[in-house]
TrEMBL record:
<dbReference type="InterPro" id="IPR004046">
    <property type="entry name" value="GST_C"/>
</dbReference>
<dbReference type="Pfam" id="PF00043">
    <property type="entry name" value="GST_C"/>
</dbReference>
<dbReference type="InterPro" id="IPR004045">
    <property type="entry name" value="Glutathione_S-Trfase_N"/>
</dbReference>
<dbReference type="GO" id="GO:0006749">
    <property type="term" value="P:glutathione metabolic process"/>
</dbReference>
<dbReference type="InterPro" id="IPR036282">
    <property type="entry name" value="Glutathione-S-Trfase_C_sf"/>
</dbReference>
<protein>
    <recommendedName>
        <fullName>Glutathione S-transferase</fullName>
    </recommendedName>
</protein>
<comment type="subunit">
    <text>Homodimer.</text>
</comment>
<dbReference type="GO" id="GO:0004364">
    <property type="term" value="F:glutathione transferase activity"/>
</dbReference>
<dbReference type="Pfam" id="PF13417">
    <property type="entry name" value="GST_N_3"/>
</dbReference>
<dbReference type="InterPro" id="IPR040079">
    <property type="entry name" value="Glutathione_S-Trfase"/>
</dbReference>
<dbReference type="InterPro" id="IPR036249">
    <property type="entry name" value="Thioredoxin-like_sf"/>
</dbReference>
<dbReference type="InterPro" id="IPR010987">
    <property type="entry name" value="Glutathione-S-Trfase_C-like"/>
</dbReference>
Length: 249
């Protein structure tokens, strides 16, 4: 993380903390036996954190949300590194079982929820398609977006823009075939890609040339019960960080 990004995060997250905006929409969890409680560590502007928040929201899971204060470098504390040696967010701790990758956390939450079969079905072919699109997001679309528009790191070269546009065309084709990104219904892959594609709104990237993707984006937002508070608030914060980064360059 560059010094510029660190400064921007300090400013933005201090504002978040003072406003109390980091509280997820799901009701505050009641105390549960240790064997049942799931701890999720997050910060609102992070796209991977937003996908976890949306997944928990869709599943109706009552979890213990733990805000990681990057301004105090809480992600580098020994107790956090025991949970996630990568010192990144999000992270999960379920009675000693830990995960530090957002899409793995998505799958775990769905697999442990009575409603999980609706967005992560047991059918092996459907799961394979879902995982294909999760890998498409983490391996292609998300990093190509960051290559162009990453806070303090993006390079909007013609080559980077062309790669990102090509990946959006691929996503358009998948949605054209399925109606959703992986199957004929919403899955965790849609929530993963929803967190990524909405970043285009934050940077002013016009996706109207991808009509099926535009249509999917609208209906995916509606499928998340508390979209504004699980995703839009964090997206707005990310947008503020991005714009502040442009002003500093």
């Amino acid at each position: 993380m560059s010094r510029t990004v660190q400064i921007l995060l300090v400013v933005a997250l201090a504002a978040v903390e003072s406003q109390g905006w980091w509280v997820p929409p799901c009701k505050r969890p009641t105390q549960k036996p240790k064997s049942e409680k799931i701890d999720l560590y997050y910060i609102p502007p992070s796209p991977p954190c937003r996908m976890i928040m949306m997944t928990a929201d869709v599943l109706g899971i009552d979890v213990n949300w733990i805000y990681v204060d990057l301004t105090k470098q809480e992600q580098l504390k020994p107790e956090y590194l025991k949970i996630n040696p990568q010192h990144t967010v999000p992270a999960m701790n379920h009675s000693g079982f830990t995960l530090g990758e957002s899409r793995a956390i998505q799958a775990y939450l769905a697999s442990n929820s009575p409603k999980g079969g609706t967005i992560y079905p047991n059918d092996i072919k459907k799961r394979a398609k879902i995982e294909e699109m999760l890998y498409f997001d983490v391996g292609r679309l998300y990093p190509q977006f960051l290559a162009c528009y990453g806070i303090g790191t993006g390079n909007q070269s013609d080559a980077n823009k062309a790669k990102f546009a090509e990946s959006l065309s691929m996503l358009e084709e998948y949605i054209t075939r399925n109606g959703w990104v992986a199957t004929n219904q919403m899955t965790i892959a849609d929530l993963s890609l929803l967190a990524t594609v909405t970043l285009t709104e934050a940077v002013g990237y016009d996706i109207s040339g991808y009509p099926k993707t535009t249509e999917w984006l609208a209906k995916a937002k509606l499928a998340v019960p508390h979209y504004n508070t699980t995703s839009q608030t964090g997206l707005d914060l990310w947008k503020g960080l991005y714009q502040a980064g442009l002003q500093r360059n």
